[in-house]
Amino acid sequence: MAVSERGPRERMVFSAAQLIRRDGVASTGMREVAAQARAPRGSLQHYFPGGKEQLVNEAVGWAGRYAGNRVARFLAALPEPTPGGLFSEMVRQWTDEYGATGFAGGCPVAAATVDCAESSASTREAVAAAFAAWTGPVAGALVDMGVPRERAGALATLMISALEGAILVARAERDVRALTTVARELGPLLDAAVRQDG
Amino acid sequence: MAVSERGPRERMVFSAAQLIRRDGVASTGMREVAAQARAPRGSLQHYFPGGKEQLVNEAVGWAGRYAGNRVARFLAALPEPTPGGLFSEMVRQWTDEYGATGFAGGCPVAAATVDCAESSASTREAVAAAFAAWTGPVAGALVDMGVPRERAGALATLMISALEGAILVARAERDVRALTTVARELGPLLDAAVRQDG
DNA sequence: GCTCGACTATGACAGCGGTCATAGTAGTCG
DNA sequence: CGACTACTATGACCGCTGTCATAGTCGAGC
């Protein structure tokens, strides 16, 4: 929750992502974003002349980049990188949050997809780009671990799909069960995709 | 889109589910629901004295029951029921829709989770119940196919999580790729869970 | 024919949303 | 000092939303 980082513009984008992932896009007000970012309301139209749509799109883009960047950190944290280990780390980020601070928030990209996929073309594209910015590094990591290139993209999509779905179910149930379940069930499948020769 | 079924009350619940899965809960207006259901606006307060929250909860409940009931139909459509085959059918329902009518709608239960998990306790419970009404039949079907009871619940959760996530990604990308990918990758894993001893 | 209940029909209201208009401040350059 | 730019500060506007209040219709039952 370190909102005090960088300039007001970045704080607003960050706060928007936070509020969106908790309440959804439509229920998140511009005034609320400015307030939480401790930024002046007048700065909204100054930094985001494109209005709410622009702000949402940037928040989604930020979230996608953030998720992509986390992949490298997860890998660095693993003593011996394996696909299943990476997936466990991705899942653990969520179980940790839910255990520590409750089930208040989901994935902002998912929220934007649900709320804007049909109503805003530019946001839909931003969401697609965010998923791509996330899937790419995951697939790259799989290749580095020895997963055949043709299969890495598919497994990355599977990992992200299962994670997103499990986040939904976990929030609904207020229980991390779904998250731990997908990690446990998918781990062996992912590890088995590593090329055994060489 | 057979809106002309049953009484106006059911039509409104059904229309609410339709609109929610397309635009999200917050962006769906009560007047809009009544209009699409070709029901009088005055009937809203008559049939749903609990207001929008009640209507949303019933729509979510309806969706959960619908999903649960589909499981039996999917099984009946399979010449030889297998876990992977069931999952393929579940996925195919979505690829068919997206292929035929476009990527306008997602899962209403997911939409309600994203929009209401934190803001409305009753809706959150309705969503949890909907997931339960869906997971139950899936797990039961797996048991019938020979999956060990201890494992069936976990695999059902995995199936539904992967499907929900893939729906999100597919809508974002406007491409069924994610859906077909999870079906293909998960099929062997699911089939391998069938007890091989008679 | 009257009554009573179920349902329909509208109009009003209060609140909030995003956006615009306008004015103000601060700091910097020339 | 004046001017110009970056940013801040408010207030107003309009559209929309959920909800309420009130009145109307319609069909049984007796």
From TrEMBL, chains A, B:
Domain (Transcriptional regulator LmrA/YxaF-like C-terminal) ranges: 87-184
Where does the HTH tetR-type domain lie? Answer: 16-59
Determine if Nucleotide-binding is one of this entry's keywords. no
Say if the entry is tagged with keyword Transcription regulation: yes
The record's section on InterPro entries has:
Homeodomain-like_sf, HTH_TetR, Tet_transcr_reg_TetR-rel_C_sf, YxaF_TetR_C
**Keywords, ordered alphabetically:** DNA-binding, Transcription, Transcription regulation
Top-level division of the source organism's lineage: Bacteria
Q: Which GO terms describe its molecular function?
A: DNA binding
A Pfam match is TetR_N
PANTHER family recorded: HTH-TYPE TRANSCRIPTIONAL REGULATOR LMRA, TRANSCRIPTIONAL REGULATORY PROTEIN
For this entry, the protein name equals: TetR family transcriptional regulator
Q: Which organism is it from?
A: Streptomyces phaeofaciens
